Each structure stands twice: as C-alpha cells, then as structure tokens.
C-alpha cells in the first residue's frame, strides 16, 4: 500500500505530539488546529492518537463530533489503509452510544455533543478511569460558559449549544490532553468559544485568541497554504442576479390588505431594507428554479466531459443543493427530478432531519457512484467528506461566515478519482446579493480569530403579545412571496486570502458600517432593551400583566429623551442605549402623569389605566 505525504499542518501536529511524547513539550496540554474547511483536519486525531498512545502518554481517545452522521467518518479516518501504512498504526475506534465501556477494547470511541449532554456522568466516569486524549471537532459550535447569562434569550439552538458546553466542560478539565479542531475561530453570534484562551483585542469590545497562551500549541492552515500545497481546490463563484415581489403585511392598501412590494433587485453594493425579504422570496419562487437549473446544467456538462475522457465510474462530479428549509428542499428535489427521465429519479436524493433514511443517504452519496445529486438543509454543511462534490447550489438565506465557509468547502476537496489536480475546480452558484459578496470579501481578507464581547442581556420568556411586536424586526417575517426571476449570471474566482500567522494575529479589518445600517441596528437594540425591562418588571409585579407595559415604557423613553427613536440621529440612538444601560424606565413612569397625548394613545389601544390615586372619569 503506497504511503501519503503529510500536509504542513499535519506535519506540525505530528511534531508537537512527538515532542510531548518524549518530554520536550511536557507543559503543552492543549493543541488548537485552525484548519481551513476542506484542508484535511480529520487526519489530525489519527496522528495524535498513534503517537501518544504508542508512547504511553494517554490510554484512550474520545473524539466528539457535532452530528451523528459524522461518527462514521471518524471511524473511517482510523481505518484508512493508506494512512495506517503511512503512520504505522493499527488503532481503531468505535462509534459509541451512551452505554458502559464505550471503547469496547479498542483505542477509543467517537460520540456526539448530544450524546455527552444526555449522559455527562457516564462519560466523566470513563475519563476518570483512564487517561484520555479528548478531541473536540468543530469546537466553534460550543459557546464559552463565561459568555452565558443567567437568563439567556429564549433561543432553542443557543440554549442547546450552552448545554453542550456545560456537559463538555468537566471532560475538558479531566482529560490528560486536548486536541481542538475547527475550520473557523469565530461564532456567528460573536460569543467566545469554549476553552479557547482569549486576550483583549486591539479594537474596543473585541477579544482575540491568544496564540502564545501558556500550555497551548496552535497550528494554523490557511486557504493560501492549502492551495499552494494543492490540498484544496480553487473556487469559481457563479453569482446570479434577480428581482423579487412579495406581499408585506406591514404596508397596507386602502382596503386594509397587505400591499405588494417590488420588484426589487438582489444585487447591490450595500445591503438595504429590501435585501433580506427579496432573498427570502427569491429562494422560494422562480429565481431559485433558475439558479438550480444553472447548477444542474453545469454538473451535467462536467459529468459528460469526464465521462467522455474516462468512461463510467467514480469521479464524474456531483451536485450538492443547500436549501433554506425542509419544505423548499422537498420542492427542489421534485424540480430536479422533473428534468430527468423517470428511471433516473433515484439519483436525486433528499437528506433532512425529517427523512428516516437520511444517514444512509449521506453515506451513499459519499461512498458510491450514485446518488449524484443531494438536496439538504444543514446536515451536509459541516464535515461531509464527499470529494466528488464539484458543484454547489447555495440556495440558503444564511449569511453567517462560518456556515458559508463550511458549505463552500464541500466542493473544494480534491477528488482522487477525477484526474489531475489542474483539471479540477469547485463551482458554487449563489444569489448575487450584497450579503454574500460581503462574505466573499471577508474570507479573502480576514482570518476569524477575533470575537466581539457580547452585550449581556437579561430577558425571560416573552409573552405572546410582545413576541409578535419584536418579530417585526425581521424584515422577512410574515411576508408572502409572490414571484421572482433571474436577470444575469456573473463568474468570479475566489482569491486565496492571507496566510494564517502562527504568532499573535493582526487585528481584523471590519467593513465600515453605513450610517443607515447602524441606525437600524441601534433602533432594534433600543427596542430589545425596552422590551426586556417591560418583561422583567412584569415578572417582578411592578406592573400588572397585559397592561401595555411595552408601549408604556416606549412612551416613557420618548418623554425622557425628547423624541421617538424613529426620529433620533445616530448619536442620539447611541446615547439612548447608554441611558437604558444605566437607568430603569419604571423609575420614570411619573413623566406620563397628566400627559393627554399618552392617555389618548393608550385609550385607542385599550391599554390605558388612570394615574394612581385618581378614579377613572367619564371622559376616560
């Protein structure tokens, strides 16, 4: 069996664990590997285990992955015959459930965040019985516990992630050594990442990963390095412009029905108030079908070209379709199947959490010549090791950098069956909106080692009436998509981006925020702070339930500051945020006493109560 050469980051990790094994780096207990998505970080646990178990530094390994569908891939990394020859190891690990003795006589076990959260005591007892190397894959999913407030906002995903962090924290503290893996060193919500060492950033309200923290060894592998070593493929983006129309319930016609908005273009140099609703509409109407058709035709041309060169078999290229939601995913599957003969319908498969055979579908897509087209929502974003994916249809409204990087990386893996490296290229079709363009700019110019210090929020569960009010801050909430169409397709090649510096990183450059964008952000922030105080005071019985507390507090703020936030300047909005951080609106309720303007408005809503000490009059 031929051996394989190690990439730069793999060789660095091998040197670090070898130094630990011989006692030259006994102070190192944590290794952080920040590897560009698709750069080959799944081999790092195999390298570390082979050296550290062989030297008797650790007895076993525990590899924690974010999803159950990735456990099989972790097992495969240890079973790869070429790497067993290259690394001279004979170790095996198993995908374990929450049963006693998870290793079952092997060198270690693979589990999930969810598995550990469901039985933390079982795993902690195992770590106390043996010296473990703990490997945490995609560690950016885990928020730092120091960032979690006692009463976090009601957010199912965020609450679940904090539960994972709490369950993993004792294992991190108990493990003999730790290897933390990630394709990005930032979280979409701006919070810090569990266990990583931070120091204050060079800009206010930021912090950065401390590359020189005592006891840590940090290995980076950038896109530029990966491209230079031909570890990943260059990317060509096909950006499709379009326009969309929708019904907006916030805008009323004369008869009270929702007004039609648009058509509005997707393309623009900067995001506007119509960018997200236009994108929301486009992904659920005719524009999505046209973008899907472009990706489908490109895949068909690629497969025909490779088939003429090498015949049937592996390496012809596959298409990954990433949908915004499960309903859209099912529709996309039917659209693509309509373009194929009935006999080929089974080559287009669906993998979502509602599909009972989703894991089998993912495995078939990775390991077999068919299916050739996979439609998914989020299951295949991270960690899907399917080198035959050559084309991605990015029909998702998510514009978080970590998510999009992971999605793009599904097509940048080098396919050993597809011929010479120079003949391979990743092709990603996406809506030509300014949010995606900003993502492309950022991954070309930044490294993602910074995190903003989150502003603490204290807010309990919102009552239904207040939830309805706050939902309006999302411009896509409640709109009814009507139609959309594609206009023009542009191609651009992704630049490699700067190298990851092993030492202290330079500060990331932030895109300048437009004043109008900053104003909208601050208005939303003020609204959230007012709502939080209203809910907290309602819970503390400072005011009666259902008595219009949110509107009353808004009126107080307007009287105290002299104008409504809709009329405030950028500086005044910043001052309003500062005032709300220092003061309670409840303490200023007296400003509404005798205010005829507030009383009239409250009566129209049916929320007004007379001032304390005065019975309601006939005029009231």
Give a quick rundown of the structure.
By secondary structure, this protein is of the alpha/beta class. It has helices at 8-21, 44-54, 71-79, 81-87, 113-118, 120-129, 156-174, 223-228, 275-282, 286-310, 326-338, 358-367, 401-409, 434-445, 464-470, 515-539, 549-561, 570-582, 596-605; strands at residues 30-35, 60-65, 93-95, 108-112, 132-136, 177-182, 198-200, 206-209, 216-221, 235-252, 258-265, 318-322, 348-351, 373-376, 389-394, 426-431, 450-452, 480-493.
What do the pLDDT scores average to?
A: 82
How many helices does DSSP assign? 19
Largest sheet entry: 8 strands, mixed
Counting helices, strands and paired strands, the structural category is: alpha/beta
Radius of gyration, taken over Cα atoms and rounded to an integer in Å: 27 Å
* CATH class group of the largest domain: Alpha Beta
Alpha-carbon distance between the two ends: 90 Å
- Number of beta-strand segments: 18
Indicate the CATH topology of the largest domain: Rossmann fold
> Helix proportion of residues, in percent?
25-40%
Strand content: 15-25%
CATH superfamily of the largest domain: P-loop containing nucleotide triphosphate hydrolases
Shape assignment: globular
Low-confidence stretches: 149-155, 456-475, 499-514, 611-620
Task: Please tell me the CATH architecture of the largest domain by its name.
Answer: 3-Layer(aba) Sandwich
Q: Give the tally of structural domains.
A: 3
């Amino acid at each position: 069996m031929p051996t394989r050469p190690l990439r730069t980051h793999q060789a660095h990790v091998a040197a670090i664990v070898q130094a630990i094994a011989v006692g030259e780096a006994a102070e190192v207990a944590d290794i952080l590997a920040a590897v560009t998505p698709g750069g080959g970080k799944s081999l790092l646990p195999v390298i570390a285990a082979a050296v550290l178990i062989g030297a008797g530094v650790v007895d076993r390994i525990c590899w924690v992955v974010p999803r159950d569908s990735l456990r099989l891939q972790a097992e495969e990394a240890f079973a790869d015959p070429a790497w067993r020859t290259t690394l001279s190891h004979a170790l095996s690990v198993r995908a374990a459930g929450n049963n006693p003795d998870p290793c079952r006589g092997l060198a270690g076990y693979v589990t999930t965040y969810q598995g550990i959260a469901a039985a933390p005591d079982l795993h902690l007892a195992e770590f106390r019985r043996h010296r473990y190397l703990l490997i945490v894959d995609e560690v950016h999913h885990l928020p730092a516990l120091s960032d979690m407030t006692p009463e976090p906002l009601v957010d199912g995903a965020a609450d679940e992630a904090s539960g994972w962090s709490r369950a993993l924290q004792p294992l991190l503290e108990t493990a003999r050594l730790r290897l933390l893996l990630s394709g990005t060193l930032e979280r979409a919500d701006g919070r810090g990442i569990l266990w990583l060492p931070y120091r204050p950033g060079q800009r206010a309200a930021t912090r950065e990963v401390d590359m020189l923290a005592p006891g840590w060894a940090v290995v980076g592998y950038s896109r530029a390095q990966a491209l230079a070593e031909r570890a990943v493929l260059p990317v060509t983006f096909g950006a499709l412009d379009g326009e969309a129309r929708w019904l907006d319930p916030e805008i009323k016609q004369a008869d009270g029905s929702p007004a039609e908005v648009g058509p509005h273009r997707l393309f623009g140099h900067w995001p506007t108030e119509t960018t997200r609703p236009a994108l929301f509409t486009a992904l659920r109407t005719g524009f999505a079908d046209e973008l899907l058709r472009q990706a489908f035709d490109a895949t068909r041309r690629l497969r025909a070209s490779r088939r003429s060169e090498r015949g049937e078999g592996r390496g012809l290229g596959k298409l990954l379709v990433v949908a915004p939601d499960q309903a859209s995913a099912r529709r996309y599957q039917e659209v693509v199947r309509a373009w194929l003969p009935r006999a080929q319908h089974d080559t287009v498969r669906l993998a979502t959490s509602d599909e009972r055979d989703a894991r089998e579908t993912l495995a078939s897509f990775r390991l077999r010549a068919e299916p050739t087209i996979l439609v998914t929502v989020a299951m295949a974003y991270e960690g899907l090791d399917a080198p035959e994916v050559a084309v991605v249809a990015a029909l998702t409204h998510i514009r978080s950098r970590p998510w999009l990087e992971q999605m793009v990386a599904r097509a940048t893996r080098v396919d050993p069956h597809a011929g010479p490296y120079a003949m391979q290229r990743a092709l990603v079709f996406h809506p030509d909106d300014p949010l995606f363009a900003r993502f492309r700019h950022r991954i070309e110019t930044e490294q993602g080692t910074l995190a903003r210090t989150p502003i603490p929020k204290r807010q309990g569960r919102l009552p239904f009436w207040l939830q309805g009010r706050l939902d309006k801050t999302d411009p896509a909430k409640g709109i009814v998509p009507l139609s959309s169409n594609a206009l023009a397709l542009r191609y651009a090649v992704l630049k490699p981006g700067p190298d990851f510096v092993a030492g202290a990183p330079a500060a990331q450059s932030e895109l300048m925020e437009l004043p109008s964008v900053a104003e909208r952000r601050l208005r939303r922030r003020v609204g959230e702070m007012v709502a939080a105080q209203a809910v907290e005071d309602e819970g503390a019985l400072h005011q009666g339930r259902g008595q219009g507390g949110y509107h009353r507090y808004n009126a107080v703020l307007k009287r105290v500051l002299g104008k409504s936030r809709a009329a405030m300047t950028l500086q005044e909005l910043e001052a309003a945020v500062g005032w709300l951080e220092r003061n309670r609106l409840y303490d200023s309720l007296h400003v509404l006493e005798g205010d005829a303007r507030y009383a009239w408005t409250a009566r129209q809503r049916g929320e007004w109560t007379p001032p304390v000490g005065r019975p309601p009059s006939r005029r009231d």
